[in-house]
Amino acid sequence: MTGFVDSGADDIRTVSVMVGSLRKAAFSGRLARSLSALAPSDLRVELLPSVGLLPLYDQDILDEEVPQAVTELAGLISKSDAFAIVSPEYNWSIPGVLKNALDWLSRLKPQPLEDKPVILLTCSPGLLGGARAHAPIRNVLHALDTRILARPEVQISGVAQKLEGDSISDPATADFVTARLKAFNEFIRR
Ligand SMILES: Cc1cc2nc3c(=O)[nH]c(=O)nc-3n(C[C@H](O)[C@H](O)[C@H](O)COP(=O)(O)O)c2cc1C
User: Fold this and answer.
1) For residue 59, is it within any domain?
2) CATH no. for residue 32?
3) Considering only CA atoms, which residue is closest to atom 14 of ligand 1?
4) Which end of the chain is more exposed for a tag (fewer CB within 10 A), N or C?
């Protein structure tokens, strides 16, 4: 008989999280940082570096060499089992900085998001919680051959009143996000 003890480490899945805002105090960044505490114990949440580190997409840059920040971002996404986006809505659509990051990733071979399970969370201080950004963001995610957890969608309205530091202080919102992360954990393992 061997003395093998299963540490359970193989059961852990990782999700890398991209934030669609650059500002330090972004609600979306705070929401992203709240996820770790709400995720199931076998789902590890890892925040990706800011998308502000990437240059604006330019084919001339790519023809020279893939920028280091793009390579690093792609490497972190490739290593993780799943991908999450936490983003505001800009003018009823996808923030430019987020689109820029997805455009860079889309040009790589292998393309790091291909077949990745994805969950999308939007938030807004307004009433609609970024609802109108879901379709445009998903459209891009479809183009990148990701596998999206479709519904119920996570759209957090009045977010300014629902966060305390980097935690969700509104119990109903915390319960909802916890349930979505549990569903996502199951979705990743399907
Ligand atoms: C260019 C721009 C466009 C915006 N468009 C919308 C919008 O369409 N819907 C909305 O709910 N909020 C909109 N807002 C307000 C943002 O939701 C708000 O600034 C939010 O705090 C930005 O997200 P962050 O806190 O994660 O940076 C917009 C803000 C900016 C700067």
Assistant:
1) yes
2) 3.40.50.360
3) 90
4) N
Task: Please report the DSSP string for 2-26 in residue order.
Answer: ------SGGG-EEEEEEES--STT-
Position 29 in a domain: yes
- Ligand 1 mean position, distance from CA 126 (Å): 8
**3 state SS of 121:** strand
CB 95 within 8 A of CB 140: no
Q: Provide the pLDDT for residue 10.
A: 74
Whether ligand 1 lies within 6 angstroms of the CB of 125 is answered as: yes
- Assigned domain for 2 exists: no
28 lines ligand 1 (CB under 6 A): yes
- Give domain status of residue 7, yes or no: no
The predicted-structure confidence for 127-160, as pLDDT tens digits, reads as follows 999 999 999 999 999 999 999 999 999 999 999 9
Q: Binning pLDDT at 50, 70 and 90, where does residue 8 land?
A: low
In the structure, what pLDDT confidence band is assigned to residue 1 with cuts at 50, 70 and 90? Answer: very low
156 to 27, 32, 83, 165, 189: CA distances (angstroms):
10, 12, 19, 16, 26
Number of structural domains found in the chain: 1
Domain coverage including residue 165: 12-188
Residue 19 CB–ligand 1 contact under 6 Å: no
